[in-house]
Design a protein that fits this description.
single chain; 2 domains; nine-stranded parallel sheet; 30 strands
């Protein structure tokens, strides 16, 4: 009997040590510079200008809590799970569904929040927030950004609201489309008070979104169109109208 107890105690102790080693293998906080495919509670994407950090590529990563992108931070994510929020303030790049030219879905448990703004057009601006192929439990909010190029939210499943408001694009070369297309939005789609340069490469397009409550488009310059050209999206494909279960002021 004593031998059995001793053996069981030894086995339990072994599993306890293995469990502690496994837990210790996932750090609470990781600062990302280059490719990260591991597990962490929180992940920080640092300011590239002040730290010299490389582009952060999340490829097959698991972040159990938050991804926090500092000003001038650069992050691309694919095949990645974020347990709570992805939060970026005046970032260089935030992109999901595409990292290192390899596409893959991203899941965010709560919110994606990207905000600005940088107001000096000769300073460092956000390049191009592109949220694609993402499943987001609550909101996607992109507000107050001064953006050199485009702003894109396409092919996502969003549990509550999608908000694009107060953004300005096209500060680099007159290329500055804003588009929200083919998203499923549980509550409201809000595209308001955005400014793009106009012309062939500076339109604002909202198309083929499925909205559980209201689709609201107002105060944008140029006005929101359903298509970039008659019946075509940016990729030359025919597109359809937005569908909203309640009110709809988007084309």
């Amino acid at each position: 009997m004593l031998m059995r107890i001793t053996l069981v105690a030894s086995v339990c102790a072994t599993f306890a040590v293995v469990g502690l080693q496994t837990a210790a293998a996932a750090p609470d906080t990781v600062t990302c510079s280059g490719r990260f495919s591991g597990t962490a509670r929180d992940l920080i994407v640092p300011n590239q200008l002040t730290t010299g950090a490389k582009n952060c590529l999340l490829m097959g990563a698991t972040i159990t809590h938050d991804v926090i992108v500092e000003e001038d931070g650069f992050v691309n994510a694919e095949n990645t799970t974020i347990g709570h929020d992805l939060i970026a303030s005046k970032p260089s790049v935030v992109s999901t569904g595409n990292a290192n030219d390899v596409a893959g879905p991203v899941t965010v448990g709560h919110d994606i929040v990207i905000s600005g703004s940088l107001t000096d057009q000769f300073g460092n601006h956000t390049c191009c927030p592109d949220i694609n192929d993402a499943t987001v439990g609550h909101d996607v909010r992109i507000t107050g950004l001064l953006t050199d190029f485009e702003l894109e939210v396409q092919g996502d499943s969003i549990g509550h609201d999608l908000v694009l408001s107060g953004n300005a694009t096209g500060f680099c070369c007159g290329f500055g489309p804003i588009w929200a297309g083919d998203n499923t939005v549980g509550h409201d789609l809000i595209v308001t008070d955005n400014t793009a340069p106009g012309g062939d490469f500076g339109w604002i397009s909202v198309f083929e979104n499925h909205v559980g409550h209201d689709a609201i488009c107002s105060g944008n310059s140029p006005a929101v169109s359903r298509n970039t050209q008659p019946e075509l999206d940016w990729f030359g494909r025919s597109v359809g109208p937005n569908e909203a279960d309640h009110s709809n002021s988007c084309p």
